[in-house]
Structures are given as structure tokens and as C-alpha cells.
Amino acid sequence: MTQAGGVNQGGLTPGSSRSGLDPVPYAVLLVALLISGAAAAYVGWATRAKDQVRFTEQVNHAHATVRRRIDLYVSMLRASAGLFAVNGDVDRAAFAEYTRQIDIRGNYPGLQGIGFALRVPPADADPVRARLAREWGRVVPLWPDRPATAERLTVLYLEPQDPRNLTAIGFDLASEATRRTAVDRARDTGEPVATGHVRLVSEAPGSAQRGFLILVPIYRGGAVPPTVPERRGALAGVVFSPLRADGTA
């Protein structure tokens, strides 16, 4: 039985809670917070995804740029190997003029130079010393010291003739394991090969600057022999380019 004034026996008006507070605003607030949290999470995810896409694009662009540049270097070295294949023995003056014509520093940014290293059997060490002295007008040692029975791969030329490159003349590429491994692989495959990281001998004494070399083999007669044993016997030398690790020439 209800009392006058429309108040029920429980003392609550219709639509009210026992606490006297309406639950609807709280429900709306909770939903709003959930939506805001979800929106913030989505924006964060979308931002990270966008950043990841941008980073991947930058990496791919850098990789493609490096790949194009290396392909350019390899094409130039193949052409330089062809110079020796066509002309046989190329002297210092002819090599210097060739490198001047192709403009290494202008057309091949990043290369420190282009060189030629001659395969020197043990019995030919003295004739090569005489050749270096004749072409350079001074005594050029074959270095580092190796056993008299060791076969060498002696740097005869490295252009352009700046102070850094001149220090490499007479150096034996076969004297150091990383270079020797790359030379052997290039010789056996007939293909261009890059060394692992090495300390460039054309750096100033005491410099920690590191880099790598790209090598292209040259065979007597010009053509690449069909078998590995024939390639090993016919190797005349390599043309090579040193690149500094920081990409500067």
C-alpha cells in the first residue's frame, strides 16, 4: 500500500538507485575512456607502423644506391682488365693516361683509386724490382718481406698518384690472409670479388682507417680459361680498387 505523494514503501522514487546516484553517466564515462584508450593505442600502432615503413624504404633506397655504385665500380674494373687483356703488358705511362681519361675521382666517387698487381713467381722477383726501378725512377722495395720461395702479387701501379696511393707501390697483395683469400676466389671463379675489411696500406702510417678492395682477375691470353686448374696456371695479375670504410676517396 502506497502513501500519499507517490512515495513507495522502499522510500525510493522511480528511476533512482539506492545510493541516490544515476549510473548512466558512469557508464558513458567508462565507454568514453575505453574508446579513448583504444584510439590512443591505434594511433601509437599506426605511428610505429608508419615509422617502420619509412625506415624500411630508407634502408631499401640506401641498399639500391650502394648496389648501383658497386655495379658501376665493377663495370669499370672489368673494362680496365680488358685493357691488359688486349694490350698484354701495359706500362706505367699508359696506365696513368688511361686512368686520367676515365677520370676516377670525378666519375667514380668513393673509389680511392685503381691499381694493377702483377703475379710474380719466385724466380721473377729480381726482374720485377728492375722494372719498378725503371718505371718509377727510384728503388721500390717489394714488401713486406716474404720467403724467397713465395709467389707474390705485387702492386705495380695505383692511380691517381697521390701520396696515399704511392705508399702502396711494391706491396704484395698475397702477403695478407684476407686479401689472399679474395685473390684466390677471383682467380678460381674468373669473377670480380670483394675482400673482407682490411687496413688499407695506402693510409698514413699509424692510421686505423679500414676499407676493402674489389678485385678482377686478368689471365694470360685475355679470355677466362674454362677450368679452375687452367685459371690458376694462367693468372697474370689483378686490377683492383680500394674503398675506404667511410666512403670517402
Question: What is the fold's blueprint, element by element?
Answer:
Layout (H helix, E strand, L loop, with lengths): L23 H64 L4 H11 L1 H4 L6 E7 L4 H12 L15 E8 L3 H4 L10 H13 L3 E2 L3 E2 L10 E10 L8 H7 E10 L5
**Mass-distribution shape:** elongated
Mean pLDDT: 84
Number of helices: 7
Estimate nothing, just give the exact number of structural domains. 1
Instruction: Estimate the strand proportion.
Output: 15-25%
Q: What do we call the CATH topology?
A: Beta-Lactamase
Sketch the major β-sheet. Answer: 6 strands, antiparallel
Give the N-terminus to C-terminus distance in angstroms. Answer: 103 Å
Strand count = 6
Helix content: 40-55%
User: In the CATH hierarchy, what is the superfamily?
Assistant: CHASE domain
What is the annotated CATH architecture?
Answer: 2-Layer Sandwich
The residue ranges in which pLDDT falls below 50 over 5 or more consecutive positions are 1-19
Structural class: alpha+beta
The H-and-E topology, N to C, reads as: HHHEHEHHEEEHE
Could you please describe the fold and organization of this structure?
The structure is a single chain. The protein is an alpha+beta fold. Helices cover 46% and strands 16% of the residues. It has one domain: CHASE domain (Beta-Lactamase, 2-Layer Sandwich). It has seven helices and six strands; from the N terminus they run αααβαβααβββαβ. Mean pLDDT is 84; it is low at 1-19.
